[in-house]
Write a structure and sequence with these properties.
Layout lengths: L1 E8 L3 H11 L2 E14 L5 H4 L2 E9 L2 E9 L10 E8 L2 H10 L3 E15 L2 E8 L5 E8 L6 H13 L6 E2 L3 H7 L1
Length: about 180
């Protein structure tokens, strides 16, 4: 799967929620996410622009756990990249396996995320511990599909919401590491 994603810093959540509702976006779910990032013993993911994480989500007393690999960004405008994700049952055992293979824990990123859907977009308002408010808009495509049209539509949607700049290509992990 190719994830076409653009992130922007926003002023505050209340104003953006109103704009999303006025546009016709539907609030779909709210969850807490904890991402534990790992670095490879072979290559430095900070240099290769890759990511490996274990994500634990909590929504309405239901917990889900995923391993996610994100490949390097494939363009200069967005965070478009290959993403592979698989559900697992035990984050601690998975973390033990990674560490026994030489992977090192880098950092945890914790956020409360409010999701909205609009047309074929997934929109999230992200309250990340240690950062200002952000919004992400993404579209998932099958491998091999041209992502440029999807990317243009994401920027058009941001424009409809009054955001013309403040775009951020770095991950929340990278933003927190800069502090």
């Amino acid at each position: 799967m190719i994830e076409v994603e653009v992130k922007a810093k926003i002023e505050n959540f209340d104003d953006m929620k109103k704009k999303l509702e006025n546009l016709g976006a539907i609030k779909s779910k709210k969850e807490f996410q904890e991402d534990i990032y790992f670095n490879s013993p072979i290559v430095d993911f900070a240099n290769t622009d890759e990511a490996l994480r274990i994500r634990t989500t909590e929504e309405n007393e239901k917990t889900n756990i995923f391993i996610t690999y994100k490949g390097p960004k494939i363009d200069s405008k967005s965070k478009t990249r290959k993403e592979i994700e698989i559900a697992i049952e035990d984050s601690e055992k998975c973390s033990d396996i990674f560490q026994n293979l030489g992977f090192t824990k880098v950092r945890a990123v914790r956020k409360n995320r409010q999701y909205y859907t609009y047309e074929n977009f997934e929109i999230s308002l992200d309250d990340v511990e240690g950062l200002e408010p952000y919004m992400e808009i993404e579209i998932a495509l099958e491998d091999g599909n041209d992502y440029s049209e999807a990317q243009e539509k994401i920027f058009e949607l941001f424009s409809k919401l009054g955001i013309e700049d403040e775009f951020e290509r770095t991950s929340y992990l990278e933003l927190l590491e800069k502090l």
